[in-house]
Task: structure prediction
Amino acid sequence: MRNWLKNRAKRHEPGAMGLNQPELGLYVHLPFCPSRCPYCDFFASPFEPDKAKALLGALPGHLDCLAKMAGGRPLDTLYLGGGTPAMLPAAWLGGLLEAVRKRMVINPGAELSIEANPGALGARKLKLLRGLGLNRLSLGAQAMDPKGLKALGRRHSVQDVARTVKQARRAGFDNLSLDLIYGAPGHDNARTLESLGRALDLEPDHLSLYELTLSPHTPFGEKYQKGVAPLPDDDQLAEFEEQATGLLAGAGLMRYEVSNYARPGFECRHNQSTWRGGDYLALGPGAHGHLAGRRWAYLAGVKAYVDKLGKGEEPLEFCEELSPLERAQELVILGLRTLEGVDLDSVQGLLGRSLQEFWSGPVARLNELGLARLENRRLVPTSKGLAMADGAAELFM
Ligand code: SF4
Result:
């Protein structure tokens, strides 16, 4: 998934507009990692204490600008992503959260997420993170078998994942998500389903199941080609996806977005809001934001970002205003990736015409192919439609 729509849907930086959406999110990108995973094309760099300190020192100044952009709207979600934000000292993260709280109101029931790597943090650190008010932990397990972990070039073990989950529960994280990747080199449906089963034995509240994507400028992108051994072909992946969805449903985790499954009530609110076209501010190098049709990203370089802020300038990589048509298109494309589908009234509000009238051909085609249906003022994907969301989206491009 490497175009911007797919990237944002996949991880944690989607967005469009604030139609009927009073919630405001804040995405913070902390791009440091202990090492580089061979498939990763996110903006991440090796942890260097001085660089990290300089960045954390610059963020409060940037938060002053964000507070103005928020205009008094309280934050309903905050997402510390990266990178591996949990590898930073808890005191630094505490300072960052304090800086946010000083400048913005965080709703009492807000979802405050942090991404972490298993094995890189122990019981004490987890307690400290929970003590900071972070209430949702997203663990990058990626695989739950040694062969799968090795194929992805991950350094942690299956035992590390199990131990971290146990410690996180004890620390009070009652909203816990695991990330898994399928379709890695040497992928085998039976083994990967067993790996998924082991993840489910840990009773996560949420699970993100991502198909490995090859980005050209990564070691995997240079070495492998989609569908050519040792990577699986599309038929094998489709079969796996169907079996995995059944296994997850059996464990009580229902698919609510193409790559995301949750127990009822544990859907990731931050991502849900962005898929619905909600507003979210951005902080940190490489972070993307969206506010009422204005979309922007900050420079994906720690030094460049800090230097710009030091000069009193906004460290923008780009900024664009979406036209009403682009906003409607984005709502449709992201909505067709979610179980709840597309809100017809929001689309009509943007286009001045109904979705069915404006896109009569694509809507008829979706219906004909059994990919989506109109229901209660929504265009809702079928399970076949969710499995073929990319194809469904293409009809609207
Ligand atoms: S831990 Fe995540 S962000 Fe860091 S290099 Fe690996 S995949 Fe990329």
Remarks:
- The chain is about 40% helix and 20% strand.
- Residues 324 and 365 are 23 Å apart (CA to CA).
